[in-house]
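Onboarding guide, step 5: your first structure request.
Type a short instruction followed by the sequence, for example:

Predict the 3D structure of this protein.
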Amino acid sequence: MPLSAAQGYPISELGRWLESPPGRYLLAWEQARLDEAVSDVFGFFAVQVGLHQIDGLRANRMPFKGCVGDQAPGVPMVAPRCNAFVVAEFEELPFDSQSIDLLVLPHTLEVSADPHQVLREAERVLMPEGRLIVTGFNPWSLWGAGRLLGQRAAFLPTSLGPLPVPRLKDWLKLLSFEVDRAHFGGYVPPCSSDVWLQRFAFMENAGAKWWPFCGSLYIVSAVKRQAGMRLLGPPWKTQRLRRHAAVAVAPRMNAAGPDSESPPQ
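The system replies with C-alpha cells like these:
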C-alpha cells in the first residue's frame, strides 16, 4: 500500500526542525526520558514506530528490536539500532495481533492523519500487559502557544497536530490502557539559539516544581489491560503452607488420679 502524502510531509518537516538548536535541546530531554521508561520493560519483541532521529529502544534489553518508518533509511542508521526495519503505514501496522511486548510512538500521533487509528493498531498488536510509550509536544505550553496566534508566530512545525495529554489519556482509557506514568519537560522559553537556551536552563527545575503541566514536551507510559485476565506468578513464588508442629495434650486430671473414673455414689 502506498504511503500517504499527508503522513510523509509532517515527518520530514519535524526531522528538519529537530536538527535546529531548539530541536536538539528538546531531543536530549526526550531521549533521556525514553531511556528511563524502556529500561525496566521486559519481553521478547520491542518496536518503535516513526521518528528515527531518536532511538527510543536504546536502553531496552529485549532480544528483538524492530523499527517502522514511512521510508527506508540508510543501512548505517539501522544496523546498530534495530534487527529489522519495515516500511508501512502507521495506521496499519504489519504485525500479528498480540505479538509485541513494547511499542514506542515518538511523536507518531502528531504526524498521523488519523491518530486514533494509530492507537487502535497499537492496542491490537500489543500483548496483554504490554507497554505503550507515547511522546509529543504539549499545545498548552510556551512552545505550543504560538500556534494560537497564527502560522507566523508558531515556533513548532506547523504541520504537526499536537494532542493535549488529557485527550490522549481519554483515548487510552477507551482502548483499555492504564496510564501509570506521565512526565513533562522543556520549560525554557522558545529560543532559536543554543546560548539563550542554556541561559534559561535554570527554568527546568522551577517549571517542574511550579507549573509541571506546562512543559513543551510530554511522555506518557501506559499498560494494556485485558478484562477477566489474572496474572499468575511463577511456581517458586507460591507461598507454601507451613506444617504446624504437633501439640502435646496433658491428660485430664481429677481427684482420683489421671484418667480414672469417678467413684460410685
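Each response can be followed by summary notes, for example: The longest strand covers residues 126-137.
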